[in-house]
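User: Can you write out an input/output pair for a complex, sequences first and structure second?

Assistant: Here is one pair. Inputs:
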Amino acid sequence: MARTILHADLDAFYASVEQLDRPELRGRPVVVGGPPEARGVVAAASYEARRFGIHSAMPMSRALRLCPQAVRVSPRFGRYGEVSRQVMSVFRAVTPLVEPLSLDEAFLDVTAQVRRYGGAEALARRLKRRVKERTGLTVSVGAGTNKTVAKIASDMQKPDGLVIVAPGAEEAFLAPLPARALWGVGPRAESVLAAAGLHTIGDIAGARPQQLEALFGARGLAVQEMARGRDDRAVETEHERKSVGAETTFPRDLADGPELREQLARLANEVAERLSQGGSRARTVVLKLRYADFHTITRQTTRPEPTDDAEEIESAAAGLLDAVVQPGDKFRLLGIHGAKLGEGQPDQLSLWSAAGEAGRTPAPRRD
Amino acid sequence: MKVSALQENLAKGLGVVGRAVPVRSTLPQASHVLIATDEGRLKLVATDLMIAITCWIGAQVEEEGEITVPARLVGDFVTSLPNERIDLSVAARGHQLHISCARNEATMAGMDAADFPPVPSVGDGLTLKLEPKTLRRAIGQVQFAAASDDTRPVLTGIHTLAEGRELTLAAADGFRLAVYKLALTQDVPERVEVIIPARALRELERLIADEEDPVEMAFNAARSQVLFRLKTAELVATLIQGTFPNYSQLIPQSYTTKATIDMRQFLQETRIAGIFARDGAGIVRVQMEPGEDSQPGKMTVSARAEEIGEHRGEMDVKMEGEPSKIAFNSRYLQDVLQVLDAEKVALETTTPSSPGVLRPVDGDDYVHVVMPMFVQW
């Protein structure tokens, strides 16, 4: 089933908090950062300030030359943290699967909630409204079937944006965008790609895999997967231990067959054992495969209940293997990981998480 | 003050108001009971400042007056007296209550009635008349789902909504939700939506145990107090301010499995499984399977405790839909099953991690939503 991942990014966060707390700053160019005489840099600039060409990481002295009427304020990280916690709690009211990336942005996996809210758009609008009600801040939201697409989408219509990329439309959505919009493509990679004639994400998607591998090694293939709109990284919540896994590199490449399946069972056993030793259970089973040509893929499946049972893990991994294996494929490495670990103690589910945010909405009042 | 009353009546009255006396109080007057003459009767009042209970008993008033005395002391004393006539007296401007009954005499130090915390006056602004038997049933089936810790104070209350010709009581503690709809005999003049402390309604439930006449429920204009008026007693409670979760969205609108079960049998099986579940986080597993051909469906209730043992019990049920399995905290199941007075109850489920819904089969006035537990099957 296609996932629905949101990337929520607060607009000009530090500057917006300052404008919120000090109404006299609203509508004026605000830069947050240390004073120019202390060689301060811009930590955040309000949209009014950005119109003058000010952007974050710019030396403060330069920013104030570009826009002498800008108001400089020193950052108050304690306050930003406080607001950030409020925002994250709004996110967590919608889904427990929230992965904060920093104070002002987070991924949300809302796959399980999206139907109840009447679709991704309605859910995203509601999220935006709740953040606004709770904190007075605007947040830009991107929605898609994976992290790459959601993250890029959230940046498309800032501020207060909402961009939804429908399942199946990922590749077309990404294709016209510049290569650097992709995660992991920095200025250096960008110039390497440009020299190879690859300027847009579409160019990367259409390139020969060998060319990308020659330029960036194994990472090149991962970048191409993303460029094609494929990205199965899970939204990982903070308190989750990353994963428990086992993998093995074969002395010689193996085709699918009894020997490979035997290894699969052995690894599943090992993962199950480590899970139970650690007193935890995995909700997600990840299969890792490295092909004879070093091309590596991971595939994962998330189960309704966490498990530490060897057979269950094996059958989940076998299902993933069945789905990808093609006749003639040979593998160098096989791995199984259990991710999204939960405590061994079974959880009592909460009424509010079942209802998402709905449970916290004020009852309508007519009196 | 000079009054006489029957020991039986006075003991009963002190028992009724004694429920409102706080166990501990920083305000000494609050651990007192107010005893006052009131139009030919004796009025007893106790309050913990959140709720106040007033009770009137028949008495012979010779001389008007009032005093407060320690509730516990007077209660224990009067209860121990023989069932005969009790004479109470307070000397003019005196602060001592003199009690005599048969050959017992006592004096106890009291305080000026003027220092007793005033009971908020609610007035007759908006009044609903409620049938005591239905009201008791509604409170009984809802109150246990209210939160017992006050991390979210609104959840320690019962959401009370009067609208049209219906009164809806609802409580939710984050893991379960209970909603009871009571039909009223006439339209509510004005929509009222308030949160009544669960404790106040529990006390009310006790108070109206023998009541036959309709109970009046009144709210003050500011919607900060509620008054319940009985024939010989009144309970006033301070309402909880805040916004109650919009619970109607928490009630699933559909199901994929529905099992109709004999209530007593289900409760019995849940209790048995609960014995084993004690050492296993209280988990009971419920599995439902449709019967083959025209056979009845089967429900299995099981529990297991690591290294201790396990148990499974089976029941015949009427099944609709797909086989299903779901795990619950045994206490949550028992809580609801033991207050239902229906013969049959329906359990509706969708997935092992979606809320389960329990409804008595003989009416649509009650619905109970319980969240399952994540378990490994």
